[in-house]
Design a protein that fits this description.
96 residues, alpha+beta, 2 domains, two-stranded antiparallel ribbon, 4 strands, 47% helix
Amino acid sequence: IARALCMKPDLMLFDEPTSALDPEIVGEVLNVMRDLAKGGMTMVVVTHEMDFARNVSDKVVFMDQGVIAEQGKPEDMFTHPKMPRTREFLARYLSE
């Protein structure tokens, strides 16, 4: 992340940024990303960190088998998903 920021990007792409990290470091990385979002950095993040997605994103896209199944504001997607597949995923994932 630090190296990418040296380039002063307008947009940052993250593909599962915490997936290979030691569990003790995950929170630190998410905090850095949270601070970037608060500072106005535009980010596209692929993640299974549902709490992070819910609290930091402006828009959530749920993909199923490589296809967009549903998209919307996080408050709508996480509390009132419209599609059965989204409801199924969130019920399973958020109960863990």
